[in-house]
Amino acid sequence: SSSKMPFFNYKEKNIHYLSEGLGPVIVLLHGYLENLSMWDEMVEKLAKTNQVVRIDFPGFGKSECIEHENGMALYAEITAQLLDILNIDKYALIGHSMGGYVALELASSYPKKTSQLILFHSTAQADSEEKKTMRNRALKALSKKNAYLKTAIKLLFPSPFQKTCKRQIDKMIQEASMLNANGIAVALAGMRERKEHAKTVQDLTCKTTYIVGKLDPVLDSRQVKKEAQNNKAQYIELENAGHMSHWESNEKATTTLLKTLRINT
Fold first, then answer.
1. Which residues lie closer than 8 Å to 229 by C-beta, 6 or more apart?
2. DSSP character for 143?
3. Which of 46, 94, 186, 253 is 20 to 30 Å from 245 by CA-CA measure?
4. Is 205 helix (H, G, I), strand (E, B) or coil?
5. What is the model's pLDDT at position 264?
6. Strand, coil or helix: what is 54?
7. Which residues 6+ apart lie within 8 Å of 194 measured at CB?
8. Neighbours of 167 (CB within 10 A)
9. Are the C-beta atoms of residues 62 and 86 closer than 8 Å to each other?
C-alpha cells in the first residue's frame, strides 16, 4: 500500500477509497454514520484471497460532501464510477445496512456485473411509514448534531454490546462528529426515499444472501427471514450479534462472509 491517499474525482469532489489484495473482486459498502474503516478487521482476512475494494460515501469518512436529493442512487453511481476507473467488471457486493441499499441499486443497474449479493444486516424493503417518520425526526435532530449522534449511534447496539464495543462506539461517535450535517442529511433523506428492491433480489441470477443478527435492535430478524424466503435468497442468522456483527462478533461474522463467498466460486 502506498502512502498516497487513494482518491478519485466525482463531479469535482474528492472521493476516498481503498483497493487491497488480488483475486476475485469483493466490494464493501459501509453503513450509515460509518466509513470504510468499519471493514478493517475483516479486510485483513478477505484480502488474502480477493481484491477488496471499499469506498467512503460522500459526506462520510474522508470523502467530500455532495448535496443530493437521491442519496442511494448517488452512492451507487459513484461506486460504479470507481469500479470503472479500476477496470473491474465482475464483483461480489457486500453492503452493511445502508450500504445494502446501495448494493441493491448497483445490482439492479448492473445485474450482469454482480457475481454475488450479500445483504449484511440490511433489507430490500423500502422504509415503512413509521421508519419515514423516524428519519424525519432524525433530520430535525441534526440541528443539535453531537447530541443526536451520541444517541443514534448507541441505539445501533443492543445493551450488552454497548459495553463490549465501547471503544468502537466512541470512535464512531468521534468520527461522525467531524462530519458535515448536510452530508448526514443526504443519507437520511436517501434512506427515507429509497426504492423497494424485492424484485431486484428475485431477478438476480447470482447467489443472494441475507446475513442477520438475531439481537438486531434495528431490523426484526423474523421479518428479514420471511423476506429472504419470499425473495428466494439464502438466510443466515448470527446468534450472538445485533446490527453491527463486524464488531460485536467479528470472527463469526468474518468466517460467515468467507464461507458464503467461497460457496459461489
1. 235
2. G
3. 186
4. coil
5. 55
6. strand
7. 72, 101, 126, 127
8. 9
9. no
> Count of CB atoms within 10 A of residue 166's CB?
11
Q: What is the pLDDT of residue 262?
A: 87
The grid coordinates listed for 171 are 470512535
| Cell numbers given for 3 | 502512502
For 204, the grid coordinates are 438476480
**pLDDT mean values, one per 10 residues, the chain (265 residues):** 75 96 97 98 95 98 91 97 97 98 98 98 98 98 97 96 97 97 96 97 98 97 98 97 97 96 70
Are 126 and 200 in contact by the 8 Å Cβ rule? The answer is no
CA angle 42/45/50 to nearest 5° reads 105
180 near 148, Cβ under 8 Å?
no
Task: From 223, 205, 216, select the one nearest 240 (Cα to Cα).
Answer: 216
For residue 265, the model assigns a pLDDT of 45
The DSSP annotation for 30-51 comes to --TT--GGGGHHHHHHHTTTSE
pLDDT at residue 208, rounded to an integer: 98
Q: Cβ(45)–Cβ(258) under 8 Å?
A: yes
Please name the residue that has the C-alpha cell 488474502: 48
Helix (H, G, I), strand (E, B) or coil at 199: helix
The C-alpha cell 467488471 sits at 89
Q: How far is CA 74 from CA 5, 20, 38, 69, in A?
A: 22, 24, 21, 9
Q: What number of residues does the chain have?
A: 265
